[in-house]
Hints:
Layout (H helix, E strand, L loop, with lengths): L12 E5 L4 E8 L2 E9 L3 H14 L5 E7 L5 E3 L10 H10 L5 E8 L6 H22 L3 E14 L4 H10 L3 E7 L3 E8 L4 H10 L6 E3 L3 E4 L1
Antiparallel strand pairs: 1-7, 2-3, 3-6, 4-5, 4-6, 7-9, 7-10, 7-11, 8-9
Helix pairs in contact: 2-3
Amino acid sequence: xxxxxxxxxxxxxxxxxxxxxxxxxxxxxxxxxxxxxxxxxxxxxxxxxxxxxxxxxxxxxxxxxxxxxxxxxxxxxxxxxxxxxxxxxxxxxxxxxxxxxxxxxxxxxxxxxxxxxxxxxxxxxxxxxxxxxxxxxxxxxxxxxxxxxxxxxxxxxxxxxxxxxxxxxxxxxxxxxxxxxxxxxxxxxxxxxxxxxxxxxxxxxxxxxxxxxxxxxxxxx
Length: 221
């Protein structure tokens, strides 16, 4: 079973798991173990790769149920052999409810010998996924991604300190500074907030365009 959506992460920002981290949560019911593994993914291919990794890790498990949500609005889940809508959809609903995007959660089930019924399965898969999300929060692995605009300023040394202060006063952050014949200042602003800085640099440089804005993208800010 597959579910696709187009809600997206919105134009302001979203929450995700920090890249390179993984959180786990467990739930047990009548000797059936449900192990949820939550990771950051940036594409469908990365989600599929994480699922393959978990399947290899738990090759002896009866089910490895995946659900993933991307920041562009795509989402998918599978029951992986469990009764329809008892596993994949509940895990996906946990991710949605937590406001997470660019994440994949795979819940591994080791069967304990007793059938749990549809209601029991929904509760178990939900509880395991919730435990993984809670663990990620406790570990400080959940980060806020904000739509930002990078601005690059090519400056003579004499203007460096003044432009750096202009950036900070305008609510931006200096991401990097490269010193060569002149100075290249790389700044980041929340999308839509870069225009006053670009205008201020233009005024400081007597009309010369020393600062140029790039394409907006999502990043920690």
